TrEMBL record:
Cellular compartments annotated: Nucleus
Organism of provenance: Dipteronia sinensis
Domain Myb-like: 9-98, 99-149
Protein name: Uncharacterized protein
Protein's UniProt keywords contain ATP-binding: no
Superkingdom of the source species: Eukaryota
CC per GO annotation: nucleus
Annotated region (Disordered), positions in chain: 147-179, 203-244
Segments passing through the bilayer: none
Composition skew (Basic and acidic residues), residue ranges: 155-165
Pfam families, per the entry: Myb_DNA-binding
Keywords: DNA-binding, Nucleus
Family matches, as InterPro entries: Homeodomain-like_sf, Myb_dom, Myb_TF_plants, SANT/Myb
Amino acid sequence: MGRSPCCSKVGLNRGAWTATEDKILTDYIKAHGDGKWRSLPKAAGQKLISLISYLFKIYIQVEIRTIFKVWINLYVFLKFAGLKRCGKSCRLRWLNYLRPDIKRGNLTPDEQDLIIRLHRLLGNRWSLIAGRLPGRTDNEVKNYWNTKLSKNKAQPKESKFDKKSITTSSPCNDHDGQASTKVFRTKAMRLMSHQVRQVMINNTQHQQQQQQQQQDPDQNHILDSNYNSTVESESTGGSSPSFSFQYREENSSEYVTGFDIEGISLSEFFDFDEFCDVNNVIKGDITGNPDDQSNTDLVLNEELMLENWNGGDGCDIQANMDSNFGTSASFLESGEDWVI
DNA sequence: AAGTGGGGCAACCGCCGAGCA
DNA sequence: ATGCTCGGCGGTTGCCCCACT
């Protein structure tokens, strides 16, 4: 009888890990330790959900209409994002790349010699060989053997790998004059650089918006509240997540273009521009007419919900935040029926 | 400048053994 | 004793980068 697959492959991310996935995984393992790999992805996803729940608690105070938009975006995010990785993939990523004691960089001549001798002794038992090389992984040893030593065990020559490593060596690791350490450009890193470009574009947009604001001081108040709102929570101490939203005005209907939670950018999970259609559908469901700017139903609903959240007695939202959030969470839970 | 092939590496696949109910 | 789950391991694949033509 064959083994059942470790997890359903349907809907799982594959291929190179993104910086965000690395962060989710690293944060989770730092908090809870490794092991339980099969249940880890789901559990790590809960961390995101808790962060978003916290985010919601804060933003529920800001503006009820905005909350609707954020709500929908969050719902779609929770539905389609998270750490959608096989547990084995999580384990591999942690052990081979994210572990803090991983030693990056070129294998020293001593290590190379040790690998040769151990391989002669142990054969292809890479985990045992790697166990004798602190900070080195079996995958790294295996790759090194397969790509270099197996081809030319007797006389390893200087390769372009070595040349590259010299030119890209990290100065901080080279201070003692030892063999220079190669700065690996992993796939995740490449993705990260791509994401940086995205952020820069967004920043440029924001800068342009700020310039517009400066040129048109009358709009400053409105744009400040709609375009970029950053909240650093003080209520729960240093462990509180910080997050920021960015909105974009388009055809007078603002929608979330991105937000960050403790450095995690949701724009890395899905394209907000493509997401506009979802917003329109949702908006159409709410209002019955996406283009109707003076929709009274939405306003009425907002007022009713605000009244409901306020307990109908005009007390402060903050006072009922916890209970209100419970209501909101159940609303989010039931979002699928409501949206579709 | 464009195409191509090889090197290097991360990630996936499938099997195995230990542990547990 | 048996079957299942899970972590670990080695082999392999696929992608990206770069040197070469």
